[in-house]
Amino acid sequence: MIGRIKLLLLLCIFGTTLSLRIPFNKSQSACADISITTDATGAYTVLSDYGITIDDSENIKIKLRIKASHDAEILLMSTDSINDPLYKIILGGSDNTVSMIQDGQNGKIKAVYYGLVLENGFTKFMITLKNDKIKVKDGDKNKILKWKDNKNPLKVVNVGIATKDSKSGVWLFPCNQEPNPSPSPATCTDNDISCDNGEGCYPSKWKCDNIKDCDDNSDEENCEGKYI
């Protein structure tokens, strides 16, 4: 069941930025974010109900900011119904200690990250889906979740959001959906490996996992004998 939400601000802007389309109002000359509040019931809100739609299901990139204490959920949906096949992303589950990707509303867990991800105030995230691979990055462009659906990849046409077991959540969708620059090697942690081109980094356990994480593909080079 789709829950009611409070639309705090909806100032429309022009055009398509990457795959996420924000509503357009010709009389609006300045860019403004869209802010949506989800309540504590855990009911899902579908973004297309408020004019936010996906233009390119083959290359989805969504920038957002979330203000919630824990259990922020994002659904990547194959239809407009939450009862049909979908991918579920949980950020800050179990009192902000674990995040995950699930294949389906109550499906198998496909990727897990242990640690705090939701901060006081707003926390930035970027979610991408390309070549059947989901990635979730934090505000510094560090990857915290990834999974590739090799069996039954979905064509995602809508997005749902909700806050579970929490007082409420505020979701900001920036009018400018262009991605932030990749982090320099200096922003990588001690356990990360820098891409050879200097644009971004990745956890060492993602080296030679047969999934491209660096634009220059350096994370999948020199992998002889490492693929199963």
From TrEMBL:
<keyword id="KW-0732">Signal</keyword>
<dbReference type="Pfam" id="PF12248">
    <property type="entry name" value="Methyltransf_FA"/>
</dbReference>
<feature type="domain" description="Farnesoic acid O-methyl transferase">
    <location>
        <begin position="59"/>
        <end position="176"/>
    </location>
</feature>
<protein>
    <recommendedName>
        <fullName>Farnesoic acid O-methyl transferase domain-containing protein</fullName>
    </recommendedName>
</protein>
<feature type="disulfide bond">
    <location>
        <begin position="208"/>
        <end position="223"/>
    </location>
</feature>
<feature type="signal peptide">
    <location>
        <begin position="1"/>
        <end position="19"/>
    </location>
</feature>
<dbReference type="InterPro" id="IPR022041">
    <property type="entry name" value="Methyltransf_FA"/>
</dbReference>
<dbReference type="InterPro" id="IPR002172">
    <property type="entry name" value="LDrepeatLR_classA_rpt"/>
</dbReference>
<dbReference type="Pfam" id="PF00057">
    <property type="entry name" value="Ldl_recept_a"/>
</dbReference>
<keyword id="KW-1015">Disulfide bond</keyword>
<dbReference type="InterPro" id="IPR036055">
    <property type="entry name" value="LDL_receptor-like_sf"/>
</dbReference>
